[in-house]
Amino acid sequence: MHKNGHDAASVVRDTIYRATMALDDQKWEDWLDLCDENFHYKITAFSPEINKDMIYLQGQRKEVETLVRLLPKHNTDHSPLRRHTSVYTVDVADDMSTASAVSSFVIYQNMLDGVNSHLDSGESRLFLIGKYHDTFKLEDGKAKFVKREVRLDNRRLDKGSHWPL
């Protein structure tokens, strides 16, 4: 597969950044192509009031496929989201068949409609911040997402948050 863990880590980083670009461009099929058949997706945030994680969205690949297929039918704010992702760590298993990664992300929303009275059309606002906790299957020189947990620092989600983050 890979000569060493460094090569595998580069493949993992590349996959994370390709996922970011696909999500930014709303190329849902391209994003799903980076995911394994056993992919599990979850969006969570910690609540200090109840001292537990809250789960905003959770599903296997089939449920995520249904979600993205139905996105065009949602009544939504069409202001695009843009992600800035920084990969912090990549840990490759000794047998080089799996890897895990932690990345930080910031998501900006470019306002199109001027829907918020304090934001004019064309302005950008901070939408969400958090970390991606990813698990990958490494095979044939490629990394496929097996699991992505989106851990939000924010606890209040706005319009557009039904999109994969």
Keywords:
alpha+beta; globular; about 45% strand; 6-stranded mixed sheet; about 160 residues; 6 strands; Nuclear Transport Factor 2, Chain: A
The CATH class is identified as Alpha Beta
Q: Termini, distance in Å?
A: 30 Å
Structural class: alpha+beta
Enter the CATH topology name: Nuclear Transport Factor 2, Chain: A
Percent helix, as a range, is 10-25%
CATH architecture descriptor: Roll
What does this structure look like?
The protein has 165 residues and is an alpha+beta fold. It has one domain: Nuclear Transport Factor 2, Chain: A. The chain contains three helices and six strands. It has helices spanning 5-24, 28-33, 61-70; strands spanning 35-47, 52-60, 81-92, 98-110, 124-139, 142-152. The chain has a six-stranded mixed sheet with strand order 2-1-6-5-4-3. The longest helix is centred in the N-terminal third of the chain and has 20 residues, at 5-24. The mean pLDDT is 88.
Topology:
Blueprint: H1 5-24, H2 28-33, E1 35-47, E2 52-60, H3 61-70, E3 81-92, E4 98-110, E5 124-139, E6 142-152
Parallel strand pairs: 1-6
Antiparallel strand pairs: 1-2, 3-4, 4-5, 5-6
